[in-house]
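Q: Sequence in, structure out?
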Amino acid sequence: MNAQHHDLGVSQVAAAIAEPARTRMLCSLMDGHARTSTELASIAEVSASTASAHLAKLKELALVRLHVQGRHRYYSLADKRVAQALEALMVIGQNAAPAFVPRTPDRLQFARTCYDHMAGTLAVRLHDRMLEAGWLVDVEGQAYRLSESGEALFQALGIDAQALATQRRRFACPCLDWSMRRPHLGGALGAALLQMALKRQWLSQDLDSRALGLTAIGRKEMARRFGINAHLEVGESSENRLAPTLGLR
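A: Exactly. Output:
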């Protein structure tokens, strides 16, 4: 009975992946960037309604995950197991996933505010570095907590993480970045990090836009405190310099 159940599950997933439009959608998500149903419809060369039906099926089989960010809805691969299975199939089929090309203006793409926290390429790099170093600990993909070393890091920055944890808002959570389509750090911790960076003049803030600039002091401190080489200039491609991606940890 168990064997029959597993066989049925395999056949359902295989059938879902085998449909050409769904295959193109899934392969396009292999780079780790989330995409809208409109973008996926264009990639799959199907109508918006057909794309929605395909995505509903992929979501039902736990192959993709839906992310709601304000008015926007994005899709990513559900988890690293899906990515690994697709990668194996792509090797067999000798296919390559299409690359994601951000279309956000350079200055806003590099660093900007997102509500009261930092967004953009720099924020995504910080987010990934904190996870890689074990300072942030992922809690079921929906929230983060700080490890002991993470608490020590933020304490050294003058940020009282324990006080932030008592606030009514979420302490720390992934916030999907609309230019990079990958998460940066949101919540009270993300807000405190931005305020600290502005206060210590690591970042400068435009008066007439949400763009943030990285100062010379900020570059040095990013390298010293976080181990990030932040000599990434506006307009320079960062695609190959970013760490593991949304939904693939």
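Residues 232-249 have pLDDT under 50 and may be disordered.
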